[in-house]
Specification:
Shape: globular
Structural class: mainly alpha
Strand content: 5-15%
Largest sheet: 2 strands, parallel
Distance between the termini: 22 Å
């Protein structure tokens, strides 16, 4: 639904956020392209993880987030719907739209 054209990632100013995150988990069908874009934006490659499966990536990100810290999830619209559903199931809460 988000289309096949990912050229927008080259227009976004990811350089402004370089060095602000301990770890970034890139996920979804375009995980590799996103990681490549972040490398070009001078993000430390050692801090970039690629996990194409969104459910596994979300579980990994939660596991890597220390208690009391904040996990930021920055999805496309379509991935947001899936992430919300996964988080609702994991937390035992009702899905957002219910």
């Amino acid at each position: 639904a988000d289309g096949r054209d990912i050229s927008w990632i080259w227009d976004a100013d990811f350089e402004a956020a370089a060095g602000r995150f301990d770890v970034v988990v890139c996920s979804g069908t375009r995980a590799e392209e996103m990681a490549l874009r972040l490398k070009y934006a001078e993000w430390d490659e050692a801090h970039l993880l690629i996990e194409p499966d969104i459910e596994k990536a979300l579980a990994l990100a939660i596991e890597m987030t220390p208690a009391g810290d904040v996990l930021a999830v920055v999805p496309t619209y379509t991935a947001m719907l899936e992430a919300r559903e996964l988080l609702a199931r994991k937390s035992g809460r009702r899905p957002y739209w219910s």
